[in-house]
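Write out the bound-state structure for 5'-O-[(L-methionyl)-sulphamoyl]adenosine.
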Amino acid sequence: MNSFYITTAIDYVNGSPHLGHAYEKVLTDVIARIRRMMGDKVHFLTGVDEHGQKVQQSARKLGIDPQQYSDEISAEFRAILPKLEVLNDDFIRTTEERHKAVVRRLLQQLFDKGEIYKAEYQGYYSTRQEQFLQNKDRNADGTWPELFGEVTEITESNYFFKLKSYQEWLVQFLTENENFIFPKFRQKQVLEFLKEPLNDLCISRPKERLEWGIPLPFDEDYVTYVWFDALVNYYSAVADKPGIWPADYHVIGKDILVPPHAVYWPIMLHACGLALPKGIIAHGWWSINGDKMSKSTGNFVEPIAFVDQYGVDSLRYFLMREMSVGQDSDFSDTQFLARYNAELANNLGNLVNRTLNMTNRFADGLVPVAGQAGAPELELQALWAKTQPEVTALWAEFQFHTALERTLAFVTATNAYIEKRAPWKLGKSEEAGDKILLQTSLATMAEALRLATGYLLPFMPGAVEKIHGVLGYQPGENWAEELAWGGRLQGNRVAASLVLFPRIQAEKTPVKS
Ligand code: MSP
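---
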């Protein structure tokens, strides 16, 4: 069995989970579910990043201990996972002993190898970004970009990791592995970044300035720089589990690709003699109603409140249907409502309702045996034969938005097929030929619905399970076999009804603004 290890970024615990965090988890979960369906042994890791200045400051503001603060916020992050139907295998917190021990071991190893040295640093420091700055980071008018917050001039001794000496190696690695980062244009950006000489990386913070971190094993007066600590989670979580490392994919947002994941992390691993991940998926960012997501201005979507109101399946569907992985997207009420009503309520939901209603009305609730296929059936089967390889290929390229579009186009075609056959007319006819045609059309719509749900399962696992339940369908182990057109539901008793996606009135505004 092929093993497949996938991770999300670990979230800072300096605030509650938001839509961006939820998206990343759902995206990773979709990939993990697809791999499980294909028979891989999946290990899916997510977690929280608890150390560093931001967390220390947030705890101080509330007048509580950073550990207590992290405990509370971490619990919130952990609690959203089942609500989002995210099936992770592990959840790591960077304050856990299993993580701290590995960080210290790797640091000691690098120190012993002479890859870490102590030096005096004099220059500018951004507290908000926990980053040392150079003059080249300034705006053209000499001021510091807003993202750095308050910038102060400091002089202090620190430990440095010899990042610079690996620059050539990294350029060569990325040149030879041109699909290391998805989407490809991001890999080009990394190579662009590497055209400038790298500086060695300051990997320590003096304890008097920052206490909330992992002490360096070779100098307890310092704690580890938060990125050197956080990145290691991907490895520390599985260091004692044989056969899992290296990761197949790290799923992260575009903001933390360069330099942490595309530069520091490969170099850290290489210097430690550890295998590199096979790939990195850098997704885009969500804005809300056209504006930057911000809690302070109220332009914010609280993912769990949204799920409670509109259901987890519609949120997962919308996130995956709307955003092209790697590009930015906007989360707006109008777009959510439009997709929900048109694609879920009127299209998929309608097909479910029609299938159940008509099977009950015209066949005593039992899916009939199909007669010989006529032109409309052959047309629908041909569309399926075309859709199937297309969707599978789109999945492999992380083009989930287009894959869903094609899947729903097949649902639309099935609804159009029903219009064409008009079983409600056939049901009134006494002719023997019409009776067979009626059976054929009922069997065809049920089969088409069953097949479409095969491609919806990783996106809307809850809704699909319900649909399978009302069709009396239990998919077998071999997923590819399940996708073949056949008469799998023949003789199954269907349920009376299923309300999945009730229409939402436009006056209700789902997205807070
Ligand atoms: N703690 C670091 C990551 C360490 S990984 C070893 C961090 N945390 S974060 O909480 O700020 O961000 C976590 C993830 O959420 C990142 O991948 C980030 O890109 C993602 N998102 C944050 N805001 C987002 C949007 N508005 N939209 C989509 N994803 C966003 O960075």
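---
The chain has a mean pLDDT of 96.
The radius of gyration is 27 Å.
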